[in-house]
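We now fix the convention by which a protein and its fold are recorded. The integers have meaning only within a learned vocabulary of local backbone shapes. The record below shows the convention in full.
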Amino acid sequence: MARELDEDDVRVRAGRGSRPRTRDRPDHADAVTATVVAVDRGRYTCHVAGTSPEPRPRPRPKAQPPPGPAPGPGPGSGGTSASASMSASGGALVAAVRGGSLRRTSVVVGDEVALVGDVSGRAGSLARIVGRAERRSVLRRTADDTDPVERPIVANADRLVIVCALADPPPRPGLIDRCLVAAYDGGLEPLLCLTKADLADDTPLRALYAPLGLPMVTTRPDAGLSGLTALMAAHVCVMFGHSGVGKSTLVNRLVPDAAQTIGAVNAVTGRGRHTSSAAIALPMPGGGWVVDTPGVRSFGLGAVSTDRLLRAFPDLAPAAAACPGGCTHLAGLADCALDEAVADGQADPARLASLRRLLAARSGTDPS
């Protein structure tokens, strides 16, 4: 009698795995160092300093040109390349994709990467990202305050410029506090930029954030930006501000050819327009970079812990260490050692009030 067969008698070949076939991986000794300036749908626009792609001949005119933006990485797709818009930094724009070894590695605007392949920046060229340098700082957020998964937005930035209007729309201290938490947690120096000073006085808002010791600058539409440019020069600065505060106006004044540069970057990625969901880095004429983040409207702080926030308050950290385990350091707690430190004159009450305001923003209990 023939034996009945079951699934154990069927030999199943192992599926194709992701393990490389050999341990001998290329060292990419000829890789070129670049900085990511824009990301869109798996394509990365990288700025290679000190290089310039070869000029391309101007295309012959057609009898009936098709509608839409001209192709190629340069404005109008003729003459010089898109690197003309990066003249402030003297480099070229190169389109790239992540290599196989970096499929699970996050790459965002500001990352320093290693490129191999076609790094000429010519139309139709495509390089591969084979390495990412360690980040010096990272601005990140979560989807909301209950989401523990952090999403990086910009890497290796020096300062977070928080743009806030003094009127029309009215200032939102709760949103400013959230930006401060994200800046302190990510290793960025916050800078508070108050706009529309022709409509309201900046004294109350300056007094509110003076205990934090962060730099503040006030701008008017009928005055220059020398104070702001002096604080941003030679730095990589991320601009953040919700709709109506004048952030786009500031970016256009800081980078006069911002529209031309954005158009060149979009031509490289094939995006065709600057969507509100992606960050883009623009070189400032006087040196430094400004990162425009129109798609970031708020910061979810679900992954920021109290200990990470306390690093921005080294004067309060010794007193906080004496608190019982699990202390949230919020107001109204009987056993919080920070209140005793203020009562004994060992801590500044204004600094404690600022810390608790940021802790409230992190926990989602801030009124705004």
Summary: The chain is about 20% helix and 20% strand.
